Amino acid sequence: MSTILKIEKLTKAFGGLTAVHRVDLEVEVGEIRGIIGPNGSGKTTLFHTISGIYSPNEGSIEFKGTKIQACSPYIICSLGIGRTFQDIKLFPKMTALENVMVGHHRASPSNILQTLFRTSAFRRAEKRAHEKAWEMLDFVGLASKAHFQARHLSYGEQKTLEIARAMATQPELLLLDEPVAGMNPAEAEVVVALIHKINGQGITILLVEHAMKVLMGLSHLVTVLNYGEKICEGRPQEVSANPLVIEAYLGWET
Amino acid sequence: MEEILKIQKKLKIWVILGLALGIVSLPLFTDLYFIRVASMIGIFVILTVGLNILVGYTGLVSLGHAAFYAIGAYGTGILTTSWGLSFWIALPLSVALATLLGILLGIPTIKASGIYLAVITICFGLIVQLLILNLDSITNGARGIYNVPRPSLGGQWKFTSEVSFFYLVVFFVILTILSASLIIRSRIGRAFMAIRENEVAAASMGIPTTYYKVMAFAISSFYAGLAGCLYAPLMRYINPDAFNIGVSIDMLIMTVIGGLASIPGSVLGGIAVYVLPEYLRFMKEYYRIVFGVGLIVMMIFMREGIISIIDRAFLGIANRLARKSGE
Amino acid sequence: MFFQQLISGLAIGSIYGIVALGFTLIWNAARVVNFAQGEFSMVGGFLAYTFFVLLGIPYYGAFLFALLIAGAIGWIMDFLVIRPLRSADPLTVVITTLGVSIILANGAMFIWGTKAMAFPSVFGSNPVQLGKVMVIPENLWIIGFTVCLVAFFYVFFQKTKAGKAIRSVAQDKETASLMGINVNLMIGMTFAVAGALGAAAGVLLAPLFFVSTDIGLTLVLKAFIAAVLGGFGSLQGALLGGIILGVLETMGAFYISSTYKDVITFTVLIFLLIFSPTGLFKKPG
């Protein structure tokens, strides 16, 4: 089993506030790793630092053997890390289809001359992008909403669309930030099945989720953060029984 | 719904064809003064379409775009007078210079955005106008450049008549609209819009945002330069006053009024803001006040631009046609 | 001579600073880039001209009336035009303020005509001996007024309820409204204050340059630049930015060739904005 993601002593602080403090993390290829912790424990900051939105103050992030902690987001994406966002960052006025096609951006290159003269290279790339996008929409079950603007989709559909878009970037590692937040049990079930399907294709998944049952049910291993530090790591059953974890969550509703 | 959209599209195509026909045959039923105005409108349409790519599609505000318009005009003006070059050589050179400077202006987007970028573009526009004003030996300063020649074809025939020059402008307007549409309906266009809609997400999906922002600047300055290259021989006289910040502001207003992120909108915007003063002449000094009020009313009630009204009108007509054929 | 130029620069810089202050107040409270800010100054100048020169009302009275009326215009602007657009995107609001500036500028032309008017200097525009140096009293009045203004605003924003309410609206509208503050009222008041500030600058400017209808755009551009220079959003920064701009302009025109001084100023500004986008002064916190 090889390591796809290795994080060492990762620290990210904002002024006086340390959001992530010396976190170590090692994820194997094909794993589903759950990241849990109370609000403010640094989960989203961790994701933002991995995907290049933030650069860490200390520590390193190694993806497939390459150090990426100093890379900008679009490079990290092109290396094979895709992601969704906790607060839904879709392109509101673009259609669902277009949103997913953007995910396919780097995989279907064409330059301005090819664009202006509509060369066969251009038309092939556009066709590929179209096909891939439809494929993704089908995969997540949103094909019927392809021509709807993203802002007109329901909340659950938007969250699912984010997954389709992230998948279009052809990731080897997928960061899912609260993919079922705000969904009813029926919708959540669909997304859980989707995540299983994605993992079944060999894609490694890093999952942040507050819905405990979902996360525990999906994850092979779970890492627990509290106040930016890792306090526990192990299999779901072990972690849920750990007194440190229970204490951190005292009074916390799942 | 699909049916209605198809009808709407067909309606639009007919209207565009009709308008195109009307425009091409314009010289048959208007006088020379209006033909000149029409040429000027064409030049503004090129400006507006170009600026829309930057502002409407990519979401970047520039309040200094008159600078590129000036570079095109002065490039052509200087090269065809003092240097005696042909218009057809001066044009690509001037447009290339404008585009290069557009790339230069785009570079600050690596670090600056929003308000700060807007101020940078303001300063840029002011700098270019000041340089034109002060580099007397090259640009003739405040006196301006006279006798900019009309272009000629093969050294024999000249575009001296207003009608012939009008058709030259129409030619470039069509090229502009076509090329802009081709760019927008592509991966590049999607990248622009993604950056506008959510830059962080765009970058996270693999789009090199600075590269595309610079490209947006380059493309919009290309078109602005092109417009300037046509302006100089049209007026046959240029001076720095025609390229001040007021012009940059007018360009932005035209783009917004017509409709952001819409090429037909830009055509309308360019037409409207230039044609209105002509038709509202009778209002004289009231005109600008009415314009200001109109601007405010539009922003409150119709901020998607004139094109949104037209789109809705077409939709309404398409609806009625669909129902009729259904009966 | 140096000292005289310096005082001159400080005076015009104070005027820029006051306009920039009003501009920044509106940005802080309503996130609006107010392109009409310069027109408040233009209108202020004309109002003072009407009251002082045409109607013979004493200077301070004319000054006050100009401030009150401009303040009312500011309030009306917010009420009629900005309030309906509270949630609109920034570009829409910018175009709207441009619309207001067009109305104000052309309205002024309509009322007062297009000729530039001369405004007499109340304090004296000829250099007087003051100790070892020569100064123009008018400039001293401008600087002195600005100092008092700064003191007044300090007290207003730090000590009074209204001032603190406006500050909280500027920091966080939602929380402010949850605390029972009438956000719309506060924003309206801010616009009124900005209008009055603009007018004050215009009245102070009147004896230095002619009272004319086309100074609005230049002033708002300078205010914009000054505000960003001092760190966009900072009130002290706006004032200081204006002063620096004024001093640079005046000294530059005197000591360096006046042809290229502006080009140099704007180029320096561009570099500043790229490499130190928060302006010359760090914002606290």
Structure overview:
The complex is a heterotrimer of chains A (254), B (327) and C (285). Chain A is an alpha/beta fold. Chain A has helices at 43-50, 73-79, 96-103, 112-117, 120-140, 155-168, 185-200, 212-218, 236-241, 243-248; strands spanning 3-14, 17-28, 32-36, 58-63, 66-67, 81-83, 173-177, 204-208, 221-226, 229-234. In chain A, the strands form 2 sheets. Chain A has a 6-stranded mixed β-sheet with strand order 6-7-8-3-9-10, with helices on both faces. A 4-stranded antiparallel β-sheet of chain A has the order 2-1-4-5, with helices on one face. The longest helix of chain A has 21 residues, at 120-140. Chain A starts with a strand and ends in a 6-residue tail after the last helix. Chain B has helices spanning 2-24, 26-29, 32-57, 66-81, 87-106, 114-134, 136-139, 162-184, 187-197, 199-204, 209-235, 245-258, 263-279, 286-301, 306-326; strands at residues 152-153, 157-158. In chain B, strands 1-2 form a two-stranded antiparallel ribbon. In chain B, 52% of the residues are buried. Chain C is an all-alpha fold and 285 residues long. Chain C has a single domain (2-275), classed as ABC transporter involved in vitamin B12 uptake, BtuC. In chain C, 73% of the residues lie in helices and 2% in strands. The model of chain C has no long low-confidence stretch (mean pLDDT 87). Chains in contact: A-B, B-C. Chain B binds chain C through residues 55, 61, 108, 110-112, 114-116, 118-120, 122-124, 126-127, 130-131, 134, 245-246, 249, 252-253, 256, 260, 285-286, 288-289, 291-296, 299-300, 303, and chain C through 33, 81, 84-85, 88, 90-96, 98-103, 105-107, 109-110, 217, 221, 224-225, 228, 232, 259-260, 262-263, 266-267, 269-270, 273-275, 277.
